[in-house]
Design goal:
The protein is mainly β. The protein contains 1 helix and 13 strands. It has a 4-stranded antiparallel beta sheet with strand order 6-11-8-9, with no helix packed on it.
Length: 127
């Protein structure tokens, strides 16, 4: 197991990241939010399959359940675009500032209305 820039890499089969198991490479990577690493072109054929979560390869998003065949002889950067999530009442956002803006918009009733709904529930006050 190797840790790099918020990414845990486990070589299951093959030679990579200083670990050797056979001539074929199969590795699993688990990214922390914002984790990234450069995948060197040490193997002739390389592919990345995204089982769950989010991933960009050199800035191009890869969809869950899809495989990307990587370019030969190029170092490719694999990066998680996932960021930390903040939760407050019914709001979920990637920053505390967005939560505060949502709370203000809710309090000022600037979020739009559900057709036919007349009841408005105030933001809970926590002390």
């Amino acid at each position: 197991m190797v840790e790099r820039n918020g990414v845990t890499l486990r070589v299951i089969v093959g030679t990579a990241f200083g670990a050797t198991f056979s001539g074929t490479l199969y590795a699993a990577a688990q990214f922390s939010p914002g984790g990234a690493f450069a995948l060197e072109p040490e193997h002739e054929e390389r592919g990345v399959y995204l089982a769950e979560g989010d991933l960009e390869i050199d800035g191009t998003p890869l969809e869950v359940g899809q495989m990307a065949v990587l370019a030969l002889d190029e170092t490719m950067t694999l990066a998680s675009t996932h960021s930390e999530r903040f939760i407050k009442w019914n709001f979920v956002a990637s920053s505390r500032e967005k939560i505060e803006a949502a709370k203000l918009a809710w309090t000022n009733q600037e979020m739009g209305h559900v057709p036919g709904e007349t009841e408005w529930i105030p933001l809970p006050v926590h002390k």
